[in-house]
Design brief:
This protein is mainly beta. It contains 6 helices and 37 strands. The relative contact order is 0.11.
């Protein structure tokens, strides 16, 4: 009897999550509903709210919503779990190649009817697991409208770097057509020394580097949205091309300053990679008070790389080390989502997601110097994964102030490797979550969350690669890699004041199993003898992580209006990331690799609405980052990145912006030990500095 009650309770809970999406989709059908009576936890932003900021695109508007930040939701497995917190006309774009910021930048601000902000659990079934969601609702129009942004970046040693982003949308009745094009060029010139020292810090050799690099990319995409007999149909596609290069020169000298040799490094070069994506969804109601959505997505492309490093030392033969890789990743996703409404205070969502992921990786190395290691592990591998994920969730509205979302995803997957590495294993995971939001007042919201997540595997970590910029460092492919699992307990409190100010603090504590970090990987011959040892990504057991974030948006009108001016706003975001894990080499506790302890962002802007002028500055700084290799500890410290800008929005062709960016250089310190780090004896210290020239940028953006 008790088991029957449990099953009934689960079914009732499962039925609650889908009544909420009906509200969002109703807003799309009627883009100007009467929202004079707003439910607690919701807020409507009309275009007039953003007028003082002179926005060009919907992205400009979303960035000015107090207390809201776009969540890209990266690093999770599955299409559904990577949903962000932004909807467009009540829908989530069926794409993984375009991030939501890029999509919003294609929507003209003049085409936004209003923006809805919801700060309650289960805000929309399109964005499962989010306690805060915005929905950009567009105006119906029969005109062609769009956006454009042309940018020119220059530096004292870079030359000119043009970029162009443009999109156009045409609506005819229930059908809209969109075409978008983007191109981007980036050039960076860096210079600085690298010092090689003994373990006692005595200088042995200095290498003085100078070089330039960059990337070029272009993308062409389109989308069609229409209705067929009451069903909503969305189709989108994109083709993207990208190319990158890096050329670096170095002069070698000894401790006395005498020249001892030179080096030439080339990476990539005349290699262009193409990638494709095709996605779409159809949404319909097959039964009363139900809503069904089917999402399909397919993407593939090429990821090629070439590098060579040529070293010529005085009185020694020239050595040449070359690497080539050719990777072809493929992903296919099919998702069925059902929403049930009319269940009182409950809204239920259930369905399933199926996915197929594949990586065909090819890697070769050549070296002109006899005795160099060329037998690398996992040089050519084929990785394939099939995954099936049934899911279920329920949103329970306890009252106007309390909402609870509870649900679970069951993952059943199979992973196979063939080629130089062979493996086959199956994974079974249960990923439950519970989110509760309490709207204490129209200004204050409390969010509590508990969930278990499984990290997305990076298939490139099953294959070998070499970084020629760091002493030909080998990242060995690891056939034994499994996903990292995390159980998280978190809390967030958000307080809004005046019309545009907010303070938000969040913290979480994570229990991690199968922590992904750097591990030693050995290569053995047929007799079991070790022939080489490398570093690679692997699992090092359990760890704990804790995070804190403070976000403040502070309008200063209360301070500056009495002295005659207004429109100054300050935004600060500070992050703290603690962690602890047992080191697999030394057996001691340490931080997780590649996880800075803190980073901070500060933005200051002054909007002079009457004159159409905006000016301001932004700064970013972060703590040193550590990586722990089997025989090396590496510390990298990024410098402060600063930007100063000015905009003028009353230019006839649109908004013109000029900015100067002081690019953040970095310092990298390598501490290389005798044998392994467990020895505690330093063999070599390598200090590298890189300095970058500042960049000047002039851009023109507008809408039509």
């Amino acid at each position: 009897m008790f088991g029957l009650k449990i099953r009934r309770a689960l079914l009732a809970t499962a039925a609650a999550l889908l009544s909420v999406p009906g509200v969002a989709h109703a807003n799309v059908d009627n883009p100007n509903p009467d929202l004079s009576v707003k439910p607690t936890g919701n807020r409507k932003f009309d275009p007039e709210f953003f007028a003082t900021y002179a926005p060009v695109t919907a992205l400009d508007m979303v960035r000015r919503i107090p207390g809201f930040s776009i969540d890209q939701r990266e690093g999770r497995r599955g299409f559904g779990e990577n949903a962000g917190n932004v909807l467009i006309d009540g829908d989530r774009p069926s794409t993984k190649s375009d991030d939501i910021a890029t999509i919003l930048s294609r929507i003209a601000a003049s085409q936004v009817a209003f923006i809805l902000l919801s700060e309650q659990a289960g805000a929309d079934t399109e964005t499962q697991g989010k306690g805060q969601v915005v929905n950009i609702v567009r105006k119906p129009t029969a005109k062609v409208n769009g956006t454009y942004e042309a940018t020119m970046v220059a530096g004292t040693r870079y030359g000119f770097q043009p970029s162009l982003n443009t999109s156009a949308t045409l609506r005819r009745g229930d059908t809209s057509y969109e075409v978008n094009f983007s191109s981007h060029s980036e050039r960076l010139r860096g210079y600085g020394p690298e010092d090689f020292k003994t373990g006692s810090a005595t200088l042995v050799e200095r290498r003085l580097y100078s070089g330039n690099g960059g990337n070029d990319e272009a993308a062409l995409g389109g989308a069609i949205k229409t209705r067929i007999r009451g069903a909503k149909l969305n189709l989108n596609g994109q083709v993207r091309w990208d190319d990158k290069f890096d050329i670096r020169y170095a002069d070698y000298s000894n401790a006395a300053g005498e020249r001892t040799g030179k080096e030439l490094l080339r990476r990539d070069g005349p290699i262009g990679d193409l990638s494709y994506e095709l996605g779409g969804d159809i949404e319909f109601s097959a039964f009363p008070k139900t809503n069904t959505k089917i999402v399909a997505l397919y993407r593939t492309g090429d990821e090629s790389s070439f590098s060579s490093i040529e070293t010529a030392r005085i009185s020694q033969p020239v050595s040449l080390f070359e690497t080539r890789s050719q990777n072809t990743p493929t992903e296919a996703v099919l998702r069925l989502q059902n929403d049930l409404g009319g269940l009182g205070r409950h809204a239920v969502q259930f369905g399933a997601e199926m996915a197929y992921n594949r990586l065909d990786a090819r890697f070769i190395v050549t070296n002109s110097v006899a005795g160099a290691v060329t037998n690398f592990p996992a040089s050519n591998v084929l990785v394939q994964e099939t995954r099936f994920e049934p899911f279920f969730s329920d949103v329970w509205t306890l009252g106007p102030a309390w909402k609870i979302e509870a649900g679970a995803i069951v993952e059943l997957s199979k992973l196979t490797l063939s080629g130089d590495s062979t493996a086959e294993r199956s994974f079974n995971f249960i990923k439950p979550r519970a989110i509760a939001t309490w709207t204490i007042s129209p200004q204050t919201t409390l969010e509590l969350r508990a969930e278990r997540q499984v990290a997305q595997l990076n298939f490139n970590e099953f294959a070998t690669s070499v970084d020629v910029t760091v002493g030909n460092q080998v990242d060995a492919g690891n056939a034994d890699l499994v996903p990292e699992k995390t159980t998280t307990l978190s809390a967030l409190i958000r307080y809004k004041f005046s019309d545009r100010g907010s303070v938000q603090f969040s913290g979480d504590y994570q229990l991690v199993s199968d922590t992904q970090d750097l591990v030693p990987i050995t290569v053995r011959d047929a007799g079991g003898n070790i022939t080489a040892q490398f570093d690679g990504t692997g699992n090092i057991g359990k760890s704990t992580k804790w995070n804190g974030e403070l976000e403040v948006t502070l309008p200063l009108d209360w301070l500056t209006k009495p002295i005659g001016f207004a429109g100054i706003e300050v935004r600060y975001v500070g992050h703290y990331h603690g962690s602890r894990v047992t080191d697999p080499v030394t057996g001691l506790n340490r931080r997780v690799s590649h996880r800075p302890l803190w980073h901070q962002d500060l933005d200051i802007r002054h909007d002079i609405a009457g004159l159409g002028i905006v000016y301001g500055a932004s700064f970013r700084v972060q703590d040193a980052n550590y990586d722990y290799f089997f025989n090396e500890k590496r510390r990298q410290q990024e410098g402060t990145r600063a930007t100063i800008f000015m905009e003028y929005s009353k230019f006839k062709l649109g908004t013109i912006r000029f900015q100067v960016t002081d690019m953040a250089g970095f310092r990298r310190d390598r501490f290389i030990y005798v044998g392994t780090r467990a020895s505690g004896t330093l063999e070599q210290i390598v200090n590298r500095e890189r300095r970058l020239d500042p960049l000047l940028q002039l851009s023109l953006s507008g809408k039509f």
